[in-house]
Amino acid sequence: KNGSRQLLKEGDVITIGKIGQQAHINVVAKPKFTAIMKRPQIEAKVKSKEDVNRQRRQSRGLGRSRGIGRRRSRGRGKREEMPIEDRIEAARTRGEFISALRILSAKGDAQRAISVLGIMRKRNVQPTAMCYFPVIGALKRSGNWHRAISLINETQALKLHLKMEEHKGLQCCYNSAIGSCKPKGQIKAAEKLIQEMKELGISRDIFTYSAIIGVCQVGSHVDKVFHYLNIVEEEKLEANAVIYNTAISAAISDFNSAVRIFERMHKAKIRPTDRSYGAIIMACAKAFKYRDALKYFKEARRMKLCNDAVFMATMSACKNAAKWEAALELLDEYGRIYSKKKIPIVLVNCALAALAAAAQKEKALEIVEMLEKKGPKPNLITYSTLISACANGYDSNRALSILLDMRKETINVKADLAAYQAALRATLRCGNWKQSDTVWSWLQSDKNTKTPRPMDFSVLMRICLNRQNPQPSRVLRIFSNLLKNDESKMKSVHYILAIRAVVIKVENSQKENSKNERVPAQCLKLLSQMQSRGFFEIEAYAEILGLSEALGDSLTEARVVLALCQAIEKEIVRDAI
Fold first, then answer.
1. Under a CB-based contact definition with an 8 Å cutoff, are residues 383 and 411 in contact?
2. Where are the alpha helices (DSSP H) in 61-166?
3. Distance (Å, whole) CA 351 – CA 330
4. What is the pTM of this model?
5. Can the peptide bond before residue 376 be classed as cis, meaning omega within 30 degrees of 0?
6. pLDDT tens, 142-185?
7. 303 three-state secondary structure
8. From CA 539, how far away is CA 543, in angstroms rounded?
9. What distance in Å separates the CA atoms of residue 228 and residue 211, rounded to the nearest whole number?
């Protein structure tokens, strides 16, 4: 009373909180209970626990003497075990339908949830905003933003926005609809939904702007991230760590913007979370800012916010900078912090990738041997990364021996396409064509490995065109096999690599013979095939133009320039400038 501490007694009238705000509360007297609370100002009579329980039973329409409440709780438990089909069939009230819709939403069954709305109308139960909310939530999980917006339009047709009691439910519906635009990065549709909320008088909360910033993350709209953060400050919404974490993740490809958002979070006196540090360190990793990543890692370590995601992001920064010593130190530190927990194999694989980038094959082999003895158990990515370390260390024999062990399943891991590609890279870097032919024959005869897709062949073609020992004949052979088997699935990159292989072949013959030659007809044939398939890439034109200029073939140069100009006029060439 009057700010002093006093024991509450049954029958006392107390005032709590600030003046001018109204609320309702039941204060239950407990023995030896003293407190000073800051709440909206209210005046409430302190009641005994029995009075409060009696009032709750009366509000629910239950009687104490008949024991209906106990039977109701048992019945409720039985209803939760009912199959969803039986639950929908037995539903007659709006609350029962909402319960069924929430179960379908948790399962992600959007089509069944939409059909339940139709069943409600047939049974003369008018859907409210809270009925549409779980349905739009299910569509959000599947990324079906078109259907989510159509349901929002249905709520407008029902004129639910004219009822004040529906505004909270409509706010939740709009937030979920905005979230459904995230998988496809539909920023324009999300902005249109926010504009509709303003026009209909539906308030926007912090979750609304968190959802649209998440959409900006997919579309890389960093400028819009700052725009919506400014709106949050202008509308005086209480920002939290969630919206800032989403904003940092949206700016993860722009290091400077991510740092600005992180500093803004500090200025707003919001304590960063483990996700905050994981996002900012990943931004450092993508920008190859190794020292900045270590600085933020030390901050997270000091604040005891280092989890697996923070370690993984820091390890990625070490991998991109080829700092294998720091990667191994991180593994040791993880073992010290989590002494009772095994090091995740994902973290070890990332450290191995750092060793592979630095061509430290011996260290990588030591770690894999230690894993085979003590654990965690190495997986497919572990051995594929080890083969990559041998490839970068120009040790094709060791790479082939590891691949052979994977083929024979002596290490309980079957080789996949990535392992074969790493072994091919090792053999071609060492210039050992016989070994590369062996690896290629293994890949084609391996029944356990999935059939390489055309895009997988593009990786193999790039490997064969490496700078040290290019093999254009092999690239053209792969290209001809693709034409015979999967011409319909071929992409523009296959034609570009084939043209580049022809150019390299001509350049090599030019160095040996030192005679002026014309651009081979194969280049122009590949270009025409590419155009007939609807592929107009500037790289293909540039390759042939560079070769024709080097050979002094003005006729071919004029033909290619004419074809390029025609494509530019039709506006079908990308990056034409």
1. yes
2. 68-80, 84-90, 94-107, 110-122, 129-142, 145-157
3. 9
4. 0.65
5. yes
6. 888 999 999 999 988 888 888 888 888 899 999 999 999 988 88
7. coil
8. 6
9. 11
